[in-house]
Amino acid sequence: MSLAHYILIGLTMGVVFGFALEKSRVFEPGIIVGQMQLRNFIMLKVFLTAVATGAVVLAVMHGFGFVKLAPKPTLYGADIIGGLVLGAGIALAGACPGTVMAQVGVGYRDALVTLLGGIGGAIAYGYAEPTLKPMLLTDGPGKITFADLAGAPYWILALGLAATLVAILYGLETWRPWKSEVGRDVDGLTDR
Amino acid sequence: MAGVSLQDRAWSPYLAGIVIGLLQVPAFLLVETALGASSSYVTVGGLLASLVDPAIVQIDYVARHLTATGKNWWQVALVAGIAVGAFASMRLSGARRHAISPAWGRALASRSPGVRYAVAFVGGFIMLFGARLADGCTSGHGLSGVAQLAVSSTVAVAAMFTGGIVTALLLRRV
User: Does B167 contact chain A (CB < 8 Å)?
Assistant: First the structure.
């Protein structure tokens, strides 16, 4: 495939991704900050549903040998410190690196500033990477998965994860029906 | 599915989540990679920075993201497409948005756009710095890594929610 094909596939998939993010309302700052303040659980509902769906389709595709998995290497220091900093950024941005683009698409003006900050952060990391590498980015156990650790086939554990997530989502929905969480303006904010 | 339309203001999070999860199918089959977003910031940022500082391409990490590979530019296109899809969905539903979400007036206890822009810039900056250090974001580690049962992603996602919850509790309630 040529580069143009990859770009076309990316654009098409992105349009579907953005459409679903907008319809689910999960891109709303009120919903993302609300999730982190444990007041609104729409973000967790979308996230866990997408993980469960991904686990099922990957279990099938990998189980039948159509695809190779691509887990990221485990580097505990980088994963933990990076994750903490990323999480702090998500709370202040009211977005994550994907959803900020949905905010730009619907016309949130501050999202352009978040995007600019994001590009700046990525450039800064590019300059910092050679310095950070010997400290945080070497000597991990490699690209390990829980299927490797358990010595069990991936597809069995992936389907088990999906089933567990469905049970959790069922509980979440019973506790907090999503329609009660979107709010009158579908931005996740409840009236005061 | 009865009662679901492209013109709806909101879909059930479960329907939207299934649509997003199904995107792993073309990602793995056609592009041989998992859904992700944050690497594209290095590709675009590296390209912009190279206009001012051509020496940046001598950093291996940046050079890897700038090569004209399908995966690099597929992800840039994916992230750009998100804005187009969200715009289309919003137009179809006829939703009208504020220039800045009213959530920020509550969370920051200030209606000043300047305050919000400052927080947004800092938030975006550390969000991408952290995502690149962790080697993935909510998409690459969250959606894709956890579904693949990756140890790295499970650790990173736990840290991400910890950092997010602690920081959000310092803000006013939305």
Answer: yes
Q: CA-CA distance, B42 to B110, in Å (whole number)?
A: 32
ipTM over 0.90: yes
- pLDDT tens digits, B86-111: 999 999 998 777 999 999 999 999 99
Report which residue type is found at A121: G
Quick one: CA dihedral B75, A120, B84, A29, positive or negative?
positive
3-state secondary structure chain B: CCCCCCCCCCCCHHHHHHHHHHCHHHHHHHCCCCCCCCHHHHHHHHHHHHHHCHHHHHCHHHHHHHCCCHHHHHHHHHHHHHHHHHHHHHHHHCCCCCCCCHHHHHHCCCCCHHHHHHHHHHHHHHHHHHHHHHCCCHHHHHHHHHHCCEHHHHHHHHHHHHHHHHHHHHCCCC
- Write out residues 10-69 of B within 8 Å (CB-CB) of A: 10-35, 37-38, 41-42, 44-46, 48-49, 56, 59-62, 65, 68
Kindly tell me the sign of the dihedral angle through the C-alpha atoms of A29, A34, A40, A42: positive
Q: What is the DSSP code string of A107-137?
A: T-HHHHHHHHHHHHHHHHHHHHHHHHHHHHS
The end-to-end CA distance of chain A, in Å, is 54
